[in-house]
Design brief:
Blueprint: H1 3-14, H2 24-37, H3 39-45, E1 56-61, H4 66-82, E2 86-92, H5 98-102, E3 108-113, E4 126-129, E5 135-139, H6 146-152, H7 156-165, H8 170-179, H9 184-190, E6 217-220, H10 240-253, E7 258-261, E8 275-276, H11 283-291, E9 296-299, H12 302-310, E10 314-318, H13 323-326, E11 332-335, H14 361-365, H15 368-382
Helix pairs in contact: 2-3, 4-12, 10-15, 11-12
């Protein structure tokens, strides 16, 4: 099989499909559930937006996982520089995380539950959805700067394609962006009408203490799609036996280091980890732990973006995800030696290999020895 040709064939096939519409019934059900558990917060959601002198109110939907939300943080930083006249209310899945994830940004005001984004649209000059590319969901006449629309027009063909096909066009959009030297954050910014992004680092407001403070340790996480219930069966995940071998090699070579596993409660524990914090930390504490780590090892997942926010270097293992598009240049980014970069060429690419292999051969082909050699080079310079 010619893997490149097969990937392009599947890409073309996927792009024949129309974009999926958001489920109205699902949104209503989510709103009802949230209302029952957060009655006071819901009441505040229907009040008019607070006025801010000399500012124009806008709304931004920070959907998706942790990585997507932290990218929105970077985007809002750029907005404060290029369009300082706007102040934003942020809509996200867990509004209580808002002060932590966005509290250092001067152009952010309130936090609301994500499914109240559309019902509140009458309070704002415009609304942005920042999942993958930035979309203008609504706008009031003459409230958006002409410069913003002019910058967006440079990628109109890709925006139209995304509007028409949604995630089905994502592999093609990413491939085209990389060919023109643009990464994920560059495209998020351009599609929001921002010419220059600046520093690609989220600003978070950590107030929790690190329970491991004073210890020398590295952290790792094995699960990239835990919120989808896939655990290590996700195609982006490195096989558990590979993790076992890598952790054993690190322990034998660097016995002075503690090895800490981070992740959700239903993540598979890796034998040999000195400290298992699976399901034992909240988000802010996990950030605090990452901040003091010598190194973080992971696949493509939210904690990679968390480490970027706190300035901790990572060793990231890449398979289906496009390394050139998603990675941070500050990190040690290790691409699988076989195949890879097939995300979004099928609807279930993250659950099973789109090319028909019983397991994701890209991640299986990346050996523990190859990863250890690169990690060892990093640790030698940091110990």
């Amino acid at each position: 099989m010619n893997l490149t040709k097969e990937i392009l064939r599947l890409e073309a096939e996927e792009m024949r499909k129309p974009a999926k519409n958001d489920s109205f019934v699902k949104a209503v059900r989510k709103c009802i559930q949230y209302t029952l558990s957060h009655p006071l917060s819901v009441w505040e959601s229907y009040l008019p937006a607070k006025t801010s002198p000399n500012k124009i109110s806008a709304a931004i939907l920070a959907g998706g996982g942790l990585g997507d939300i932290l990218r929105t943080n970077v985007l809002l930083q750029a907005f404060s520089v290029q369009y300082p006249e706007f102040i934003f209310d942020v809509f996200l899945n867990e509004p209580s995380h808002g002060p932590f994830l966005f509290g250092k940004l001067g152009n952010v005001r309130n936090f609301y539950y994500e499914h109240f984004f559309r019902p509140r649209k009458y309070y704002y000059a415009f609304g942005l959805d920042t999942l993958q590319l930035t979309r203008i969901i609504w706008q009031k006449k003459d409230k958006i700067p002409p410069a913003l629309l002019q910058i967006r027009s440079k990628i109109n063909s890709l925006l139209d394609m995304y509007q028409k096909h949604g995630e089905h066009a994502w592999h093609y959009i990413v491939r085209e962006s990389v060919l023109h030297g643009k990464d994920y954050l560059d495209m998020l910014a351009l599609s929001a009408g921002i010419e220059t992004l600046g520093i690609k680092k989220p600003l978070v407001h950590i107030q929790k203490n690190n329970p491991l403070q004073g210890k020398k340790y590295i952290t790792f996480s094995t699960s990239s799609n835990i919120r989808d219930g896939l655990n290590e069966t996700a195609t982006k995940c490195w096989p558990v036996p590979h993790w076992q071998e890598l952790i054993e090699k690190i322990k034998n070579t660097y016995p002075q280091l503690k090895i800490v596993q981070l992740g959700e409660q239903n993540t598979t524990p890796i034998h040999g980890a000195d400290v298992s914090l699976l399901g034992k930390t909240n988000m802010e504490t996990a950030f605090a732990i990452l901040k003091d780590a010598i190194l973080h090892i992971d696949c493509d997942c939210g904690l990679m973006h968390a480490a970027q926010a706190v300035g901790t270097k990572c060793c990231i293992l890449w398979g289906p995800t496009c390394r050139e598009y998603v990675s941070y240049s500050e990190n040690c980014n290790i691409a699988a030696p076989f195949c890879g970069n097939c995300w979004h060429i099928t609807e279930d690419w993250n659950k099973k290999c789109p090319l028909g292999f019983p397991k994701a051969q890209c991640m299986h082909s990346l050996t523990a020895e190859a990863v250890f050699q690169q990690i060892s080079d990093l640790l030698k310079t940091n110990l």
